[in-house]
């Protein structure tokens, strides 16, 4: 068990560590998901995932041409 100054220092370090990890994951998700399926409006990270998505979820439809 820590006492006195060690305890205060440990609490301060833990508070700093916890402060850095806080933040919204919605912003990071919005940045990462750039491609959207035109049929079901699912957001995907890249065109390869869009091709796989069309193959598994919409097999009768053709995936859109790669615009990038």
Key features of this structure:
68 residues; 3 helices; mainly alpha; rod-shaped
Q: Enumerate how many helices there are, as a single number.
A: 3
Low-confidence stretches: none
Whole-angstrom Rg = 23 Å
Main-sheet strand order equals 1-2
Q: Count all strands and give the number.
A: 2
Report the end-to-end length measured between terminal Cα atoms. Answer: 58 Å
Percentage of β-strand residues? 5-15%
Shape: rod-shaped
Helix content: 40-55%
Mean model confidence by pLDDT:
85
Name the structural class: mainly alpha
Describe the largest sheet: 2 strands, antiparallel
Q: What letter string, H or E per element, gives the SSE order?
A: HHEEH
GO molecular function: zinc ion binding
Main location: cytoplasm
Keywords: Cytoplasm, Metal-binding, Nucleus, Zinc, Zinc-finger
Subcellular location: Cytoplasm; Nucleus
Please give a structural write-up:
- The chain has 68 residues and is mainly α.
- It has a domain at 25-68.
- The chain is 53% helix and 6% strand.
- The chain has helices at residues 5-21, 25-32, 47-57, and strands spanning 35-36, 43-44.
- It has a two-stranded antiparallel ribbon with strand order 1-2.
- The mean pLDDT is 85.
Give a summary of the structure in a few sentences.
53% of the residues lie in helices and 6% in strands.
Strand-helix topology:
Layout: H1 5-21, H2 25-32, E1 35-36, E2 43-44, H3 47-57
Antiparallel strand pairs: 1-2
Main location: cytoplasm
Biased composition (Basic and acidic residues): 1-19
GO molecular function: zinc ion binding
């Amino acid at each position: 068990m820590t006492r006195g100054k060690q305890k205060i220092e440990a609490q301060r370090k833990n508070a700093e560590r916890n402060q850095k990890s806080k933040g919204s994951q919605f912003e990071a998700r919005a940045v990462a998901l750039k491609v959207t399926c035109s049929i079901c409006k699912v957001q995907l990270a890249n065109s390869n995932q869009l091709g796989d998505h069309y193959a598994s979820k919409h097999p009768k439809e053709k995936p859109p041409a790669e615009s990038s």
